[in-house]
Write a structure and sequence with these properties.
The termini are far apart. It is built from 20 helices and 5 strands. 66% of the residues lie in helices and 6% in strands.
C-alpha cells in the first residue's frame, strides 16, 4: 500500500460500538485520520465539508435517514466525488441486496464480523486503484474525469487507451458505451454495452440498462423488455427498472404485465417522497389514475418543479385524448406562470385538437408576444391558417 500520503477515512456506521471498532482497526493498520458519521445523510455533509478532504469511505449498508446504498449512489452521481473509493460493510447475506450495491461500481464488500486482514486487503486494493494507479486504471479514471468535465472526445480517447491496455475489463466498455450513447452513436454504444455484459461482473446490470435505453430509442420495444427483464432478474430491487419495464410492456399492448411491473415499482418506491414523472405516465397507461394523482401531488412543491409536473401531465393526458383533464392541468400551470412559452404552446396544441381555435390563437399570441422566434408556435399558426380556422 502506498505510504507517502496520509489518507482520511470516513466511517459511516449507526452502531457506536461497531464504529469505534472499525476506527481502532484502522489505527492498527496505520490510519489515524478517521472521520465518523452515523448515517448516509451525515456522511454526505462531512464529505462536502471535511478538511482534510475524505479519501475513502467505509459504510454500513442498513442505516436510518440515508442508507449505505443511497450514499453510494449519491457519491457516484456527484460531479466532485464520483471517484471516492467505497467499501460496504454489512451483516446482510442477501444476494438481491448485494447486487443492488455492486451494480453501483463498489470497490469492496465486507461481511461482519470484519477481520483485520480482510479490511487491510480491501482498503489496499481500493486506495491503490485511485491514488497509485497502474496504467489501465490511470487511463480509466482519466476517461471518467473527462466525461464528468464534459470533454467527451478526450474521454473516449482515454477509455480507448484503457481498453487497449486491458481488453477484458468491463468498466471500460460500459463507460465507452455510455459516452457513445450520449453522442447518439447508438450502434457503437450497443456493441460496447454488449462487450461489458459479456465480461459478466459488477457493471453487467448497468450495461443491460444501457442496451434497453438504446432499444427504446430505436423503438425496438420487445428487445427493451428482454434487456430490462434480465436486469431485474439479476438485481430485483431497482424501482425505476420496473417502471421502465411497465412502460415498454404498455407499448407492446401487454396491459397485465405492465401493471404487474408497475405495482412492483410502486412497492419498492413507497418511501420515496418525489418520483420521476415516468411513474405518472406508467400509472395512467395502466388506468391507475388515483396513483398518478397521488404521485403528482407528492411531486408538487417548488414552483419550477410544479410547472414541469403540470405541463408533463397535460401532455400525457392530451396524448391519451383526455382533453378536459389535460386542460385543467395546463390552466393550473398558467395560474402560476401566465407567460410561460412552453406551457402556452402545449396548451394551444391541446385547444387546437379540441377545435377551440380562438382560444388556441390567443395562447399562441401570448407565446409570440414574449418570444417571436418560437418556431413551433408559427408552424401551428400557419397550419390553422391553411385550414381556414
Amino acid at each position: 500500500m502506498p505510504t507517502a500520503r496520509r489518507y482520511t477515512f470516513l466511517v459511516v456506521e449507526d452502531n457506536l460500538a461497531m464504529a469505534q471498532m472499525l476506527s481502532h482497526m484502522l489505527g492498527n493498520l496505520g490510519h489515524d485520520s478517521v472521520v465518523m458519521a452515523r448515517n448516509g445523510k451525515e456522511a454526505w455533509e462531512k464529505i462536502e465539508l471535511s478538511h482534510p478532504p475524505i479519501d475513502i469511505v467505509l459504510s454500513d449498508l442498513l442505516m436510518p435517514k440515508m442508507d449505505g446504498l443511497q450514499l453510494l449512489q449519491r457519491i457516484r452521481q456527484s460531479e466532485h466525488y464520483w471517484y471516492l473509493p467505497f467499501i460496504m460493510i454489512t451483516v446482510v447475506d442477501d444476494l438481491d441486496r448485494i447486487m443492488s450495491v455492486t451494480e453501483e461500481h463498489i470497490d469492496g464488500y465486507l461481511v461482519k464480523p470484519v477481520t483485520l486482514e480482510a479490511l487491510r486487503q480491501k482498503i489496499t486494493i481500493a486506495l491503490k486503484k485511485v491514488y497509485d494507479p497502474d496504467p489501465y486504471h490511470r487511463a480509466l479514471y482519466a476517461g471518467k474525469r473527462h466525461f464528468y468535465e464534459g470533454r467527451l472526445d478526450e474521454a473516449i480517447q482515454a477509455l480507448t487507451e484503457a481498453k487497449n491496455l486491458q481488453p477484458g475489463q468491463s468498466a471500460t466498455y460500459y463507460y465507452l458505451g455510455h459516452l457513445l450513447e450520449q453522442q447518439g452513436r447508438l450502434d457503437e454504444a450497443a456493441a460496447n454495452y454488449q462487450h461489458c455484459k459479456d465480461c459478466s461482473n459488477d457493471l453487467w446490470v448497468k450495461s443491460l440498462d444501457g442496451l434497453a435505453r438504446i432499444f427504446i430509442r430505436q423503438h425496438n420495444h420487445a428487445a427493451a423488455v428482454t434487456a430490462l427483464q434480465k436486469g431485474i432478474d439479476l438485481s430485483p430491487n431497482n424501482a425505476e427498472r420496473y417502471v421502465d419495464l411497465s412502460l415498454e410492456q404498455s407499448r407492446l399492448g401487454k396491459g397485465e404485465a405492465a401493471k404487474e411491473a408497475l405495482n412492483a415499482a410502486l412497492k419498492l418506491s413507497k418511501k420515496a417522497s418525489n418520483l420521476p414523472q415516468k411513474f405518472i405516465e406508467a400509472c395512467l397507461n395502466c388506468g391507475m389514475d388515483q396513483e398518478a394523482e397521488e404521485i403528482m401531488q407528492n411531486n408538487l412543491g417548488a414552483t419550477v418543479e410544479e410547472i414541469v409536473t403540470l405541463n408533463h401531465m397535460g401532455i400525457i393526458c392530451r396524448k391519451r385524448q383526455e382533453y378536459e383533464r389535460a386542460r385543467k392541468y395546463y390552466e393550473r400551470a398558467l395560474k402560476i406562470t401566465p407567460s410561460n412559452d412552453l406551457v402556452n404552446y402545449n396548451y394551444a396544441v391541446l385547444l387546437a385538437e379540441m377545435k377551440d381555435y380562438a382560444a388556441a390563437r390567443s395562447a399562441l399570441d401570448r407565446v409570440l408576444k414574449h418570444n417571436p422566434e418560437f418556431d413551433k408556435a408559427w408552424t401551428l399558426l400557419a397550419k390553422m391558417d391553411s385550414l381556414g380556422v
